[in-house]
């Protein structure tokens, strides 16, 4: 376990030193600021309330989980795998007395922590912005639901990251991984619209699963099914990704 | 036995795949409340159009401002498929405070209408039997599938908001409730904008109607549907609350409720209104798609004219006459002459004076009142015969007046 921890700290350190994580945080804040400006504009211009203090964080989440969060998850993931292979840094990582499984797991754990950190940052700042600039509509219930929605958004994002990990181990160049991921992402979005009855299997629809936690009638069965679908796909993607990572010659 | 790395990987991959496959199948098989709602609607529409011999449908809505009724509508529709007859009674109180009510009756050969402000029964009799007037299934429409797909895509994640409660006798209650957090922001914004436009204090709205100007938002949307054990929907109630403030800062909660009920299945009686002793205006047409038609064009033999007018010193002044003379006309063709006559002293207006003979052919549609012809100058023109008012309409390509002359293309019979 100590070995894994060391590997994780090592990966986090690398992530922290990279500009990409910082850019992700800054962009997330920009989303909140721009969103708030638009809302204030619509409110004074059209006289609509648009979002109360508790609806604002949900509005931010609905935009972010479909745009910048998947984008930065992809960038960070590609950096952590393709980037290191390309710069031959992977050799340094792998020559340490740590098994490949632990390195692989540590990398994924680091990416997940990055996603979680971004989500929490968005949560805190959007709640603050919501309270400062918008009509108060908060209740304890809605606050708890909002916090929950942000936290559960981690799961589909990790599944997405694992999918991209598999791609980074399949394709050599980081740029091609990036473009293939974007194409697949858009393709799945379109499929989700045309085959809405099967959309629960698609990664892109799962990104919106936080909505299930907002419902008045807590749809437990649906949440469990959706969770198991994500669990199943992440186990598959993790194994397949690791299989390729383990076989990779340096 | 210690598992090798390879077997572990194969095992975990298979486990993951199985987990994914089984839950995905379960998820697809599990009918969401939304799907059950759609099924109930389809079953109900199919039953109403094919199986039930008669039924009564009540549809009503009302709009309230903080509990005070602003507008309401109530419609009762009785359908009898065996007689293929339908009776509709509507009463409505509009937002501007007016009351309307009307009553209509349809069957294969008759259409009767009565409104509240006029005691006259307007009766239209069709000489050709019309299609089944009772009820047609909207889901049999060609576009229904596409509309359904679009609706599915729009509803998207909200699908799981429909909760199903099953009763021991097999009937079901489907209900759903959305609060502001669950309504997608874009939909909320568009709906509130629409409501704000409705209640903007313009269009002659009275003072009792609130003028929303600030902080408009959709507060809640609720719906309940009752489905009986045969899968037929007996009632569906939808309500929405839109909240907003007026200029004075008073909060208005505007409630919109819509209720539809299906009652008296197989026991509804549709009766034709008793017209004896009532004031009746009767009209006989061939079928509902009838266009103006002409049965005897010979009526139009002779001279038709209208006055050529100008505007002078703020008054209309007659400067001459336009004359159409039809010398021969039947169901295939017509010949005649168009000319203009100017009164002495107004010759300066005669610069655009026209005089031509025509040899027109009737348009191919049977009984169509249109006759087309081509002038010597090569311009296509046509005239229409109107049997009801005894007039000829000349269709000309010019639409602007020349030299101050007022255009008029309606010609009346000349009896002088």
What structural class do the secondary elements of chain A suggest? mainly alpha
State the end-to-end CA separation of chain A: 26 Å
Principal-axes geometry of chain B comes out as elongated
Structural class of chain B: alpha+beta
Tell me the Rg of chain A in angstroms: 19 Å
What gross morphology of chain A would you assign?
Answer: globular
Element-level helix/strand string of chain A: HHHHHHHHHHH
Helix content of chain A: over 70%
Main sheet properties of chain B = 12 strands, mixed
Largest interface, and how many residues on either side?
A-B, 53 and 48 residues
Q: How confident overall, as mean pLDDT of chain A?
A: 87
**Uncertain residue segments of chain A:** none
Care to describe what's here?
The complex is a heterodimer of chains A (about 250) and B (about 425). With about 250 residues, chain A is an all-alpha fold. Chain A has one domain (about 1-245). Chain A has eleven helices and no strands. Chain B is of the alpha+beta class and about 425 residues long. Chain B has two domains: about 35-265, no CATH class; about 295-415, Lipocalin. Chain B has helices spanning about 5-30, 35-50, 145-155, 185-200; strands spanning about 55-65, 70-80, 85-95, 100-105, 110-115, 120-125, 160-165, 170-180, 215-225, 235-245, 250-265, 280-285, 300-310, 315-330, 335-340, 355-360, 370-375, 380-385, 390-395, 405, 410-415. In chain B, the strands form two sheets. Chain B has a twelve-stranded mixed sheet with strand order 7-8-9-10-11-1-2-3-4-5-6-12. In chain B, β17 (about 370-375) and β18 form a beta hairpin. The chains are: A mainly alpha (about 250), B alpha+beta (about 425). Chains A and B meet through α2, α3, α7 and α11 of A and α1, α3, β8, α4 and β9 of B.
